[in-house]
Amino acid sequence: MAAKKDPLQSGPAFIGRVIEASARAFLVGCRLTAEDIPSFGSFVQTARGETTIIGVIYDLVLQGDELTRMVALQDVPPQEIQQDMIENRNLPVQIGVLTLGYMRDRFTYYGVPHQPPALLEPVYTCLPSQIQRFTEQPDFVRTLIEAREASDDVLAAVIRAAAEVRPGPHQRDFLIRIGQEVVRLLADEPTRLGQVLRRIRMTI
After folding, report:
1. Phi-psi region of 105 (alpha: psi -120 to 50; beta: other; left: phi over 0)
2. CA nearest neighbour of 30 among 63, 66, 67, 2
3. Spatial separation of the C-alpha atoms in residues 121 and 142, rounded to whole Å
4. Most buried in the list 45, 57, 105, 184, measured by CB within 10 Å?
5. What is the pLDDT of residue 85?
6. In Å, what is the CA distance from 128 to each residue of 2, 68, 116, 186?
């Protein structure tokens, strides 16, 4: 069961544990209430030894359990049961995470780590300071653009999440740098470039 984050606590929130992993991506299994389920594009972290692996959420699957199936078989599920399932019950959730890079010995690296995270390794949210540090260079954008797992909607959501942790004028500077990187990487795909830039503008 996932622990709820104390609003007075400054540390990262526990999400779940790794249930499947490859060099490029990993799956997280957990049980969360609807309000605790993280959103697409959220930055998360796990570990492999002394290496902190950084990834972003590209997929969310809410898995039905026995109670869900029983309620679904009723012609008109009772409103109070539906509301309770939304607000109070911990739902089985499977989260797909795309690996963007890793941190080790105060250095940041982009691309896949030497090894994927171990099975059952805990997964946490990233702190705003970690997100700022990891996205200081625009190198992470290439992985998102080239990844078959992540859609352009996820790319836009990741850029939004990285911008939101930056105060005031630093957001604009960040978006300009990232926009320039997107233009450079998609210069040979003008149609996709236009679509990506529109998605980014829509999320800000």
Report:
1. left
2. 2
3. 27
4. 57
5. 65
6. 21, 35, 23, 28
